[in-house]
Specification:
By secondary structure, the protein is of the alpha+beta class. Helices cover about 65% and strands about 15% of the residues. The chain has two domains: about 350 residues, Outer membrane efflux proteins (OEP); about 80 residues, Outer membrane efflux proteins (OEP) (Single Sheet), CATH 2.20.200. Strands 2-5-7-8 form a four-stranded antiparallel sheet, with no helix packed on it. Strands 1-6 form a two-stranded parallel ribbon. This is Transporter.
Length: about 450
């Protein structure tokens, strides 16, 4: 009779098989091979964040054109028409009022022209500030584009890792099936008990469950990427595995620091904000300078305003207008001080960013070297685990080891192979992280 432990093992195997076969079959979906360059291109094209940034750039461009238009003259055309009320005249006090005859309607046609000649630099600095705002909008777009690319790459690397895990699990299942055939043969020959067969079947079932989970994860990550890329979300994405064999040449740490200071979009953005703060100082100071304008106007009106005679009267004038805002001498002082403090604040932000860049570059540089070293170490571990499994398999087939030792050796080999897959993926991701902090992504 079979022991209680054997019944438990049989029950667990049956339950596991029931779980597998009760699950619906994976729907057959179309697949799409996707390279890293295609990932970046489609991700940038369909990013809602970048679409919003593009609209902000267009708005900044329109503001620039609006400010440039202030250099053009102001031209106004006016037309007035209305009813003239009856005037009342008194020659002696308030007695004997007179009601002279006047036309019932009045008309006034006017043309006014005003050309700024000198505004203390307000127009020039306003144009420069608008240009800087447009530049800042473009740099913000560039910064967001880098972050979006890195986010897409992170998901792409997850998909890449899952596909490699899928390959490892399939190979492991094939070997487990062959091992199970050998164990069943040994059971028929009476060399081992039925417990070894049941445990091997349970191990194979667990491997198949892991494979099913990996396939589901591939489908989920593919859907997430398809939504971000504006594609059919049912497409099964296949990553480019050739990136594992790309030759990567590392530069020195100091070279990466210099590249980051020169090319990092966030650093450029802070420099542009500092320059705009300088412009604000000059713009505020310009409000304390005189304004000079050329003006001209022409007016045609009836009746004559002084005599109320029913006649048209035309007059014109040309001149130069000069004004000086005396109140700015005591109103703009604090504004100028605030603008100077803002410059210092932006310079402080630049220095903080330079410190952060050194930390980010150093971290990315060391993590990438660490990932490379981990891959080399795990390559050796994989060879050792494979050799250990081969030895344990031979010993088990020769009845020199128990099944637990063989399954443990297989588990160690599988874990090390999966770790190597994760390490290879980490090498690619840390390389792109290094390119990101250097402004080359």
């Amino acid at each position: 009779m079979m022991s209680l432990k054997t019944y438990r093992i049989i029950f667990q195997v049956g339950l596991t098989y029931l779980i597998i076969f009760a699950q619906p079959a994976v729907a057959q979906t179309d697949s799409l091979f996707l390279t890293v360059d295609e990932l970046f291109e489609r991700g940038v094209e369909h990013s809602l964040q970048l679409q919003a940034d593009a609209m902000k750039e267009l708005m900044a461009q329109e503001r620039t054109q609006t400010v440039r238009a202030t250099r053009l003259p102001d031209l106004q055309i006016g037309l007035k028409g209305g009813f003239v009320g009856q005037p009342i005249l008194w020659e002696r006090g308030l007695a004997d009022p007179l009601h002279p005859e006047v036309p019932d309607w009045s008309q006034n046609y006017a043309i006014d022209f005003n050309q700024p000649l000198y505004q203390g630099g307000k127009i020039r600095y306003s144009i420069h500030k608008a240009d800087l705002e447009k530049q800042i909008a473009e740099l913000q777009t560039l910064t967001d584009r880098v972050e979006i690319k890195l986010g897409l790459l992170n998901q792409y690397m997850n998909l890449f890792s899952l596909f490699k895990q899928h390959e490892v699990l399939i190979r492991n299942i094939e070997e487990s099936e062959l091992r199970l055939q050998d164990i069943r043969r040994m059971k028929k020959e009476g060399l081992i008990t039925n417990n070894d067969v049941l445990r091997s079947e349970m191990q194979l079932t667990n491997d198949r469950l892991s494979l099913q989970e990996t396939e589901n994860s591939i489908a989920l990550v593919s859907q997430q990427l398809n939504i971000l890329l504006g594609q059919n979300e049912n497409l099964l994405l296949q990553p480019d595995t050739t990136i594992l064999f790309h030759t990567i040449t590392l530069q020195s740490y100091d070279d990466y620091i210099a590249l980051a200071f020169a090319n990092d979009p966030a650093m450029k953005l802070l420099r542009a904000q500092t320059e705009m703060a300088h412009t604000d100082i000059k713009l505020t100071q310009a409000f304390s300078l005189p304004n000079i304008s050329l003006y001209a106007s022409n007016s045609l009106a009836r009746p004559v305003s002084r005599t109320l005679a029913d006649m048209y009267n035309n007059n014109w004038n040309v001149g130069v207008s000069v004004s000086y805002p005396l109140s700015s001498l005591y109103k703009n002082n604090h504004k100028i001080k605030e603008s100077r403090m803002m410059v210092s604040l932006h310079r402080n932000a630049e220095e903080q960013k330079m410190q952060n860049i050194r930390v980010e570059v150093r971290t990315a540089f060391l993590r990438h070297q660490e990932a490379l070293q981990r891959v080399e170490a795990l390559k050796l571990s994989v060879r050792q685990a494979q050799e250990n499994y081969r030895i344990m398999q031979n010993r088990y087939l020769n009845q020199l080891a128990i099944l637990t030792d063989l399954l443990d050796a297989n588990s160690v080999r599988l874990n090390v192979e999966l770790q190597l897959v994760a390490a290879r993926t980490r090498v690619i991701y840390t390389y792109y992280q290094l390119q990101k902090v250097c402004g080359h992504l």
